[in-house]
Amino acid sequence: MIFYNMEEEKQKNKGSEERWRGAISNLTEMSSNLDSLQKLLLRKAVFVDEDTFAKASLSSEQARTIKVLEQRVETLERELDAAIAAAAHARSDKRQAEAAQKAAELHAQEVTKELENTTKVFELHMEELRAKQQEISKRDEEIKLLEAIIQTLGRKESLAASG
Q1: How confident is the model at residue 110 (pLDDT cuts 50, 70, 90)?
Q2: Alpha helices of the chain — where are they, by DSSP H?
Q3: Percent of the chain at pLDDT exceeding 70
Q4: Which residues contact 56 (CB under 8 A, 6 or more apart)?
Q5: Rounded to 5 degrees, what are φ and ψ at 156?
Q6: In this structure, what are the phi and psi dihedrals at residue 81, rounded to the nearest 5 degrees?
Q7: DSSP code, position 48
Q8: Cα distance between residue 129 and residue 137, in whole Å
């Protein structure tokens, strides 16, 4: 068991050493890259006095601000175009709705007139039916009267025939 723990400890140390070697190698490579970058910057660098640097910085800042403002103007123009298109669409929808409303109102007027005319015709038919009903009632009364007369005459005949 002790042998196993020692072997395990050696494996851990070996893995740790490999990681340290890799880290040191990476640091060395980064240092070399930094040196190369510094040399490149020194060859391409332009040295100016503080006043010129301040003016260049200000110009650069203004250029960035102008670019941001231009982008904002483009965004606002797109939004304005979209709003104009939406307003045109809304106006078109409104016109269609108004036309539909006028058509519905005209249809309602036509239906109302037709209902009024139908009501007048219905009233005339009702008057005719009442008049015919009264005529039928009079005829019914006449028929009942005639039936009564016939029954009375029929009894008299049967009495006369039997007597």
Answers
A1: very high
A2: 2-44, 50-162
A3: 92
A4: 48
A5: -65, -40
A6: -60, -45
A7: -
A8: 12
Q: Please give the torsion angle defined by the CA atoms of residues 77, 79, 80 and 83, in that order, rounded to the nearest 10 degrees.
A: 160
Q: With contact defined as beta carbons under 8 Å apart, do 56 and 48 qualify?
A: yes
Q: Measure the CA–CA gap between 95 and 99, rounded to whole angstroms.
A: 6
Q: Which two tokens stand for residue 45?
A: 């660098």
Please give the biggest Cα pair distance in the chain.
Answer: 165
DSSP 109: H
The CA-based angle 21-25-30, given to 5 degrees, is 150
Q: Which residue has the tokens 């640091």?
A: 27
From the list 79, 76, 56, 78, the residue with the least C-alpha distance to 68 is 76
CA distances (Å), 6 to each of 20, 58, 97, 121, 159, in order? 21, 66, 91, 119, 155
57-66 tens-digit pLDDT: 889 899 999 9
One-letter amino acid identity for 4? Y
d(CA 82, CA 136) in angstroms, rounded, equals 78
| Averaged pLDDT, 104-117 | 96
